[in-house]
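pls read this stuff:
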Amino acid sequence: MTKILNTSKQEIAYTKFKFPSGEVGIKLAINRGWFIGSYKIILLARINSSDDFFELAMIKNALETEYNTNYGDMIAPDIHCVLAKVPYAQQDRVCVRGESLSIEVFANLLNSLNFKTVTIIDPHSDVAPALIKNRSVITQFDLINKDREFINRVTLGNNVFLAPDAGSNKKTAEIAKYFNRDGFIRADKLRNLQTGEIIETIVYCDDFKGQDVIVCDDICLGGKTYIELAKVLKTRNCGKIVLRVSHGVFNKGLDELFNNGIDEIFATNSYQEITDPRVKVLKIENII
């Protein structure tokens, strides 16, 4: 799904349909008033499927065609893209012989659309930013800095930050420093590279002395990492377990997390609209 926003942040409407053989089509709801004076158009894209990508591409093409055909007396606006969540960002290396480097495939397709700029939000690793042209990054730290509700939760409580794996150590250190903490707790997980199954979770703290544990990460899919982590934490004298993720996929449902040790969740609506009142949501539309 893509939102089209003009310079005034007004949403330009369009309809989406499918041809009989399954191809995606779109049609702009033309209103000259939306275009007049717009020197910049932002396409806020939530790409969760290949159809969503083609929808984005069709919209860009339709906008350019409309301007070139019917607004020759006006300077065409620059078209910018904001990717709420970068697809394939986690497939940033080849783990098993014979696999594709999926993020490279996606980046090449995106680059072919020639956006003026591409803004990506907490892209999991440095690989996606390296492959996507004309890009800027809204980091996990940037999101937290905009999330007043989360900031209040941290500053008003007795808590400690925990990095759920080695890949999140750098980001967690930055967040802990922002909140004037002396340090953070590390954790590691061992996976079976063939199946992806978590074999073991290691937490480098034996006693949390009743402190709440705050885990910040880029993405939650089904939540297995955090459920396994919670199993260990609950044996280490911790208080509540607070999960803050930039991208909440939650493909096994929120009950899977809340019923297995996670007490509070903070997320954005980058992947989907979240209406469950148990989740504190930071809306991407409010930060771009």
